[in-house]
Amino acid sequence: MAITNADTKVVTGKVRLSYTHVFQPQAVDGGDEKYSTAILIPKTDKETLRRIQAAVNAAKEAGKGKWGGKIPANCKTPLRDGDEERPDDEAYKGHYFLNASSKNKPGIAKPIGKDAAGKTKFAEITDTTEVYSGCYAKVSLNFYAFDAKGNRGVAAGLNNLVKVQDGDFLGGRSSLNDDFSDVEFEDDFDGEEDFLN
């Protein structure tokens, strides 16, 4: 049976984003610049996890040609256990996670309602502060086989993401509203005075 793009593509349920670089590409460990994000998948989201496992298996099958006709015994896979690999990180507790990246900028949007046919309408997000480490999204991924200098496995490509909910910032950053919600500003600005004079 031939493996198609549909077999290796997954649209997740609601996941949380971490280490998010989706507006500007970043180079990691001296590699190529890529758009990327870590995706935290709740362990309770069995359907997304099932679909990811099926897509990874399909990518392994498709990769046999790259790997000399068989799946390598030490084939690396992208899905990792947050409880085991990040036991001290509260955000990763109760989650699996994977890193997804792309050389091309992903589509970034939010749902804004339905059209006359009942299909979801989207608005592109261009404000770089609106999608951040800690917010929630549904993400389109494609899984593919790689063979790089003896490293063989399956990686996750980042296609598109739709932000569905705000969340607490990850990485210690606080929100503007949290920092200043109790601070009085009425006397601090009147638009007339120049503090240098």
Automatic annotation (TrEMBL):
Q: What name does the UniProt record give this protein?
A: Uncharacterized protein DUF2815
Show the InterPro entries listed in the entry.
Answer: Enc34_ssDNA-bd, NA-bd_OB-fold
Please name one Pfam family that this protein belongs to: Enc34_ssDNA-bd
- Domain of life from the UniProt record: Bacteria
What SUPFAM superfamilies does this protein's entry cite? Nucleic acid-binding proteins
